[in-house]
Amino acid sequence: MIAESRTLSVSINRHPDEVYSFVSNPENLPQWAPAFCKSVRRAGAEWIVETPDGPVKIRFVETNAFRVADHYVIPTPDLEIYVPMRVLPNGSSGSELILTLFRQPNMSDQEFRRDIEMVTRDLNILKKILEK
After folding, report:
1. How far apart are CA 99 and CA 69, in angstroms?
2. d(CA 113, CA 111)
3. Among 25, 50, 54, 131, which is most exposed with the fewest C-beta within 10 angstroms?
4. Which residues make Cβ contacts (< 8 Å) with residue 93, sequence separation at least 6?
5. pLDDT in tens, 18-63
6. Beta strand pairing status for 71-76 and 54-60?
């Protein structure tokens, strides 16, 4: 079964390497994704994020030259939510951050819209932080 998805993006007037370095570091999540992440801490090889719904594990792909910052949100041991995220060059010195949300099974229309709105707000916060 194919999941409904929504790809969101934000243009950032900052070099792609700088944007990638910031977004691929889980320690920065509370700064730019406050709707999702209240705090984050390392627990061995994993990251634990405090969310409004309680703690969840998060795992990013390894740092890479392609500026891929895909990550997995693991709210329960039997559920791993894939979140593709890329930083692309936009113009000579800017960036385009692209993030895809997949609608989860049993997620209502309202819940999916809420997630889209939340991520859109977070991407706009990221833009403001990185363009200072």
Report:
1. 9
2. 5
3. 54
4. 13, 14, 15
5. 999 999 999 999 999 999 999 999 998 789 999 998 999 999 999 9
6. antiparallel
Q: Are 7 and 100 in contact (CB under 8 A)?
A: yes
pTM higher than 0.90 for the full model?
yes
CA dist., res. 75 & res. 64, Å (int): 25
| 95: β partners | 12, 89
Domains, the chain, ordered by start: 5-130 (3.30.530.20)
In the three-class reduction of DSSP (H, G, I as helix; E, B as strand; rest coil), residue 10 is classed as strand
C-alpha–C-alpha distance, residues 46 and 58, integer Å: 7
Q: Which pLDDT value is given to residue 45?
A: 77
